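TL;DR need C-alpha cells for one chain.
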Amino acid sequence: MRYARAKTARLTLLYGESPWRVIALSLGFMLAVALIYPLNEWLRPADGVPITYTQIAQDPSLFLESLYFSTLTFTTLGMGGYEPLGWGQVIVTLNTTFGAILLRYLSSSSVAALRGDALLRA
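>> reply
TL;DR here they are.
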C-alpha cells in the first residue's frame, strides 16, 4: 500500500521536474476524450452523420477522426470540419480548458528542466 501511494505521488506531483509527465498526461487526456465522443453521438463531421461506436466497429478509421478532433480542440487550434452535439459542446469546452492549462504546464516544466540542466553544467 505504501509503495502504491508513493508511486502515485511521484507520478502526479513534481511537475517542474519533468516535462514528460505533462506530455503523458496530455496524451492520455486527449485519448480519453476521443473515447468519450462516440458514446452518445456527440461528434459529427460536417459532411456526415454523428460518430458512434457502431460506426467505428464497421469503419475503425472513424476513431482516428474522433482522436483528431480531440487533438484539435485540446491544442485550441479550432474545430476543423466537425460539430460537437449536445453534451459534446461541454466536453469540447473542458477539453480546450484542460488543454490550455496542460500546455502551460508543459511550457513551464520544459523551461524549468532546461534551467536545471544549465545549472548542472555550470
